[in-house]
Amino acid sequence: MKKVFFITLSILFLYSCDRNQDTDVLPEATQSGKNTGGALFDGKVWVAKVESSSAIQGGNNTYLQSDPITGREIMTITLRNYQNPSSHAIEMDINSMQAITTGTYPLNGIYENHAVIKNGGNGYYTDGSNNTGSITLTKFDRSKKIISGTFQFKAKNSAGNIITVTEGRFDRRF
After folding, report:
1. Residues 6 or more apart from 152 whose CB is under 8 A from it?
2. How far apart are alpha carbons 102 and 49 in whole angstroms?
3. Helices (H), the chain
4. Where residue 51 falls among pLDDT bands split at 50, 70, 90?
5. CA–CA separation, 171 and 27 (whole Å)
6. In this structure, is the dihedral angle defined by the CA atoms of residues 122, 127, 129 and 130, taken in order, positive or negative?
């Protein structure tokens, strides 16, 4: 009887573990709006943790908007770890004169498509020179409000330090 109890307890414990909480592994590259994201920062794993929908507008700070002055469509994708505010946060913007759709968008400057890494008071930016990269949208579903894709870039701060971001992925609702 003790064996059955121990085995049952062990199985329940294993089922209660959520492998997505593992911060040493990048999340899977999915396309179903799981609100996941992560990347390698100079080769080290960084995983985003999403706030509950009551914490901030939209639940994850990823949104689509239109600029009434320029007519541009702007998609902002924000990945951060709300459990560790001193951890990095990534914000990527796609600015397009046409409707945003799947495809690859170069990160080519601060006022165009760009990425920003925020880390406390330090900001790292793609600046269009040697600090560039790309975002590839593999899914952009306006009706279901799902955006998924991959990214990679180099970003520099005001002191000239560079962070290389590789194997980035996100699967977000907006």
Report:
1. 39, 133, 134, 165, 166, 167, 168
2. 25
3. 2-16
4. low
5. 9
6. positive
